[in-house]
Amino acid sequence: MIAATGYKPGIDELTKLAKEAGFTYAAPLAMDSLEFREEVRSMCSADRCKSYGKSWSCPPAVGSVERAKERAEAYHRGIIIQTAGALADSFDMDGTAAIMQQHRKNFDTLVRQVKHFYPDCLPMGAGTCRICRSCTYPDRPCRHPDRMVSSMEAYGLLVSDVAIRSGLKYNYGENTMCFTSCVLID
Q: Residue 55 and residue 70: Cα distance in Å, rounded?
């Protein structure tokens, strides 16, 4: 196995791996773009996604923005990945769901591959964790803490800023949808 030799792919190779996993766009993550903001986290409390206070991967269960920042600062490089797709119109909820499903599938594949080389990598996804049909929060511990992934927003990151400062777009035009995630490595 390649991982047993001590070989670890660099950012360019991980970016290529991400494209092979099916992402529309992949780029080196601009680490200086990771600004952990309370105001982003406070947007979570508006509960537009219906996950605030209902999942171990979302606020308030994920801990403070300061804790998220401390965790992320242990990493020095990473990649940012996006899945973009066309919608029939701006109200195409089925199209949006299909693009999100594809993004999650690609992300799960990529994270498994990256963990082969970087077992302690820090993946930050798009949206709340969907491993379990229903989350045990707050009554019982997470069933899969080793697989659970919090979103970039749960970390307090303004995804549009991170994408743009990393050389990617955030909006790919009218009637398109784009989901963004990242993986930090040391």
A: 21
